[in-house]
TrEMBL record:
Its main location: membrane. The keyword Membrane applies. It is found in: Membrane. Keywords: Hydrolase, Membrane, Protease, Transmembrane, Transmembrane helix. InterPro entries: ClpP/crotonase-like_dom_sf, Membrane_assoc_protease, NA-bd_OB-fold, NfeD-like_C, NfeD1b_N, NfeD_membrane. It comes from Tindallia magadiensis. It comes from the Bacteria. This is Membrane-bound serine protease (ClpP class). The chain crosses the membrane at residues 228-248, 278-296, 303-321, 327-350. It is a multi-pass membrane protein.
Amino acid sequence: MDRKRLRKYNRMIMAILSIILLSSVLTFAEGEGNVYIIPLEGEVGPAMEQFVAGSILTALEDPDTQGIIFTIDTYGGRVDSAENISEMIIDIPVKTASFVTPRAISAGVLLTISADYVTMAPGSNIGSAETIPDTEKALSAWTGELRSVAQEKGRDPELIAAMADKRIAIQDVVEEGELLNLTAAEALDLELSDYTARGISEVLAVMGLSNANTVELEISRAVRIAQVLTSSLVAPMLLSLGMIGLIIEVMTAGFGVGGTMSLIAFSLYFGGSILAGNTGMAVILVFLAAIALLLIEAMAPGFGIAGLGGLVLIIVSVVMASSTTGVAVVSLAVAFLMSIIALILIIKYAPKSSYFDRLTLGIKMTSDSGYTSTERREDLVGKKGIVTSYLRPSGTVEVDGERIDAVSEGVYLEAGTNVQVIRMEGRRIVVKKID
């Protein structure tokens, strides 16, 4: 065989080997490697944010990772957390896909469109992304973020913005005054989604990774607990219950229901914040210092530097435990409003409540200690006395040399205040301040 012929055969063999090698490489690229599945479920907030950050890190530390699928099932949540999660998804260097099953409402819209591929399960829906409150400033910033991400990912920005701003009208799609909400079929028809997938296998096919191995990550119990405790509904309620409990404790003798309720509520509030990764043990130390100052204040009449310092430290601890100052302000505003309402109700109805009487007069006061039973003491009505232990609104007064359990008419009376017995309510003596 001459050299020319040999060279020809050699080139043919090399070409065949190249084709085989290239096919092997392509087969390896599609058939091997891992795709991580990260669930985005429940309220979008700090807990979800921390979970997503850790999950993405886990996926990218795997050298065989070829893609990440985010399964989305949420009614929405906080805008700041949604924006942070969106940035994380956009910055992922491998293929990403979102799989809406069964809903991506409100903040979930931003999470969905942040991925490279958008898929939806049959019967799922996406939209209704209006901010609460829907002020012009908040709405403008939010729709701007939605438009920006939509443009970056090749989605119709006007279509996405119409999900948040009801002033936007799109012919044959949504009328002015309505928020856009789309089913899976409608989203596919409008090219918002790339495919209506019946399962993860079809999502993998859309990504071009049909034969990849899937690794499913699960939301831990700690994260789910943190989601509940730091939610926009539960967190302000816990803060409110904590402050209301403090008020009840300050107004009653000894340590009772109010103090217990306050400790449980505050423990859950700050515990949820720690689980969500918002803060560390420093906030607990600040809060304990606040409680110490309030206890000092409770032991003395009036309201002075210790009480003021305690309130300031509570505010500081709440700010430290919140992801943003704005969230802290909203939570504190709700808590203070609820506390004021509770205080008004306590002052108005507590003196007339036998249950509150059991709370406030639960300490044994025997005759050996100089106390006299208040049962059927109608003879005291109209008599004058002096407060011996300040009334909050319960305490003791001295009438004709006797120390007697009494309650004020819902007002705070310091020791040494002159009072008069105005009526009997069952076994309780009710007094009022006199000049």
